[in-house]
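Possible regression after last week's pipeline update?

I re-ran a chain I had predicted before the update to compare outputs. Posting the input and the new output here so someone can diff against the archived version. Not blocking, just want to make sure nothing changed silently.
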Amino acid sequence: MQRCRMKGRLVDLDMVADAGGERETLSDGREVTVRPIRPGDGDALVEAFERLSARSKQLRFGSAPHALGASTLRHLIDSVDGVNHVAFAAFDDAARLVGVARILRYPDDPDTLDVGMVIADDYQDAGLGHVLGDLLATHRPRPAKRILTSVSADNSRVMSLLRSFGVTPEWSGTGVVIEIPE
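New output (post-update):
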């Protein structure tokens, strides 16, 4: 059984997924439903990607494609196993996907994880990134020694979110590195 800490209490991830998710109140008072990514979330991911501003796409993806292709969607959804690839989605009251966060083990380096997150433009600075970041930090694949991820140098929001893992991220020649405390 996988457990998830939400609102300060441990929750069974299967129950959260079956029940439709857990409600979270953001710093601006809006509420979202947060749950693990499901196989049927592909259309919501495509729509959320299309709603992102060019600036948000650039900060998250660097040189982003204009659309999410079938192979990308398969990776983003089908490879989520809750063990080596953990992903959460946040939906607003209109059932729009407004945030996605994932953390996964590098297949060629099992001690290293990659992390990625994107928040809808109209939900940035509302605390959703911190909600999702805390979930990733709690439910990251274990054991692992470090996180290595690509981040735009001017993406200060993500650098702040990466502190959810309990240490200050450091820049390296290959991206941002977080050495995870034991």
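Follow-up from reviewer: compared with the archived run. Strands lie at 3-6, 9-12, 22-25, 31-36, 85-91, 97-106, 109-119, 146-149, 170-172, 175-179. Marking as no regression found.
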